[in-house]
Write a structure and sequence with these properties.
By secondary structure, the protein is α/β, with parallel strands linked by helices. Helix content is 36%, strand content 21%. It has two domains: 13-74 and 392-443, Urease, subunit C, domain 1 (Roll), CATH 2.30.40.10; 76-382, TIM Barrel, CATH 3.20.20.140. The termini are far apart. Bound molecules: zinc ion.
Length: 480
């Protein structure tokens, strides 16, 4: 019997970095999980995913990060954020109604913001998002200076989408958002048409960390002319159109009256319910609006805390879990620091599961695995980046989170996916990579000294409050 020629072992390929010995949750189409898994990264992208033994024999790299059994998963995608409102966190509006807040304090706050303040706010917001396991955010189109937002995000290595500032042109429509009267951004069709698409130039660099998309404020503030122009701009540029919609009954009712039909039915009629559209909130959904939503391919950024902290009722009126179960692309968002307070997508995912179970009276309506799907894959698709991010697969961007498992909430070691959502939350986020670069290492941001971020944001907040003539008064006043 002839001897079989031994096959020569293939020389290992080079990589720049290997993350090994992880409880690896890939979120790939087969939802593969490895209890001892590894990811090889070259440049900005993933070049190998599999069992640690395999990856470590197939690749060599100058640096190997040992995850020590901690969970590694794709970075979360924050699909609805106002990153420039962080300076107002916790400062006003805890117990007053939105109607009281809208025309007064918050308007003064937004009017007082300078580009430097927006830069400072975005630094804090990005640090917070990264620390909580998010690697990409979609800005809501409410920054005066998308350049300032982009600069801050790039400084910390955060991926993001920015839009043009405050595109709105339907004045005097009761419903909240339009209560803002911004000196720098009046409701005006001509202004919107001039600005529309102004951020798309960023997309000429295929490796741009911060990209442009089309954002309009929405929520009763756009004429059909603006809605249609925004959709056409998004279509021709191959990007998403992002807007607020049906946050609460008042703005949905305003749209109903303006159009003489239910808000979402009208938006469907003018072509706005489409696969490249992302609506934030959608807490109000009436029965006739369900089928058009389901057949549209539209994505919704569900913001549970953005509703719950203000008692809006989105968790029991919104039907997000039902739509998710029926195949709709439901993603998640933290909204804003003056609304939801925390930019913690893991927390939003937890609240989504809990509120859906409470409302439906069943534990099967949403699971921990559903929560992770909404936070990763669905977020990537909502942002129009499903071919780049959202899962750990060869060819995709190396945007991933390395968690530790040496905290009490991670023990006993049973099902790390369930524990991630239900018990550890974000406190196990340890090291984060975006585009192949380590942006958080042992919980410390690598792009800027954290003390400098804190000083910058605190002094910006002081300036804004002085400009507003606003002094914060705690309900429990300190004695000294
Ligand atoms: Zn919003």
């Amino acid at each position: 019997m002839p001897m079989k020629e031994p096959t020569a072992p293939r020389p290992p390929e080079t990589a720049d970095l290997i993350v090994a010995h992880a409880y690896l949750v890939t979120m790939d189409p087969e939802r593969r999980v490895f209890s001892d898994g590894a990811v090889a990264i070259r440049g900005r992208r993933i070049v190998g995913v599999g069992a640690s033994a395999e990856i470590l024999s197939e690749f060599t790299a100058p640096r190997v990060l040992d995850a020590r059994g901690g969970v590694v998963h794709p970075g979360f995608v924050e699909c609805h954020t106002h990153v420039t409102y962080h300076l107002a966190r916790g400062a006003f509006g805890d117990t007053i109604s939105y109607a009281e807040l809208g025309p007064t304090t918050e308007l003064d706050f937004v009017n007082a913001l300078t580009d430097e303040d927006e830069y400072a706010s975005t630094l804090l917001a990005c640090w917070e998002m990264i620390s909580n396991g998010a690697t990409c955010f979609v800005e809501a189109g409410t920054a005066y200076s998308p350049d300032a937002v982009a600069e801050a995000a790039q400084t910390l290595g955060m991926r993001g989408l920015v839009g043009d500032p405050f595109l709105w042109d339907a004045e005097d429509t009761p419903g909240g958002f339009n209560a803002y009267r911004l000196e720098r951004a009046p409701a005006d069709t001509d202004r919107c048409m001039r600005l529309l698409g102004g951020q798309l130039h960023r997309n000429s660099d295929p490796d741009a960390l911060v990209r442009g998309h089309i954002a309009i404020a929405g929520m009763g503030t756009a004429t059909d002319e603006l809605e249609r122009a925004a959709k056409a701009a998004a279509d021709s540029a191959g990007v998403i159109l992002n807007q607020h919609q049906s946050y609460y009954a008042v703005d949905a009712g305003t749209d109903d009256r303006r159009h003489g039909q239910l808000a979402l039915l009208h938006l469907d009629e003018i072509g706005l319910l489409d696969r490249n559209c992302l609506f934030a909130h959608v807490n109000v959904i009436r029965d006739p609006e369900v089928d058009p939503l389901l057949s549209s391919g539209l994505s919704i950024a569900w913001c549970p805390a953005g509703s719950m902290l203000w008692g809006v009722g989105g968790t029991f009126r919104g039907r997000h879990a039902e739509l998710y179960r029926r195949g709709m692309n439901i993603a998640l968002g933290s909204d804003s620091a003056n609304w939801a307070n925390r930019f913690d997508l893991g927390l939003q995912a937890y609240l989504a599961v809990l509120s859906a179970r409470e409302t439906s009276g069943t534990r099967t309506i949403l699971t921990a695995e559903d929560a992770l799907t909404m936070a990763t894959l669905n977020g990537a698709r909502a942002a129009g980046l499903e071919h780049e991010i959202g899962s750990l697969e060869i060819g995709k961007r190396a945007d991933l989170v390395i968690r530790r498992n040496d905290v009490p909430e991670a023990f006993p070691l049973t099902d790390p996916v369930l524990q991630l959502v239900y018990s550890t939350g974000s406190k196990t986020v340890n090291t984060v990579l975006i585009d192949g670069r380590i942006v958080l290492e042992d919980r410390v941001p690598t792009g800027m000294d954290p003390d400098r971020i804190l000083e910058t944001t605190q002094s910006a907040t002081g300036r804004v409050f002085r400009q507003m003539g606003f002094t914060y008064e705690p309900r429990w006043k300190p004695l000294n």
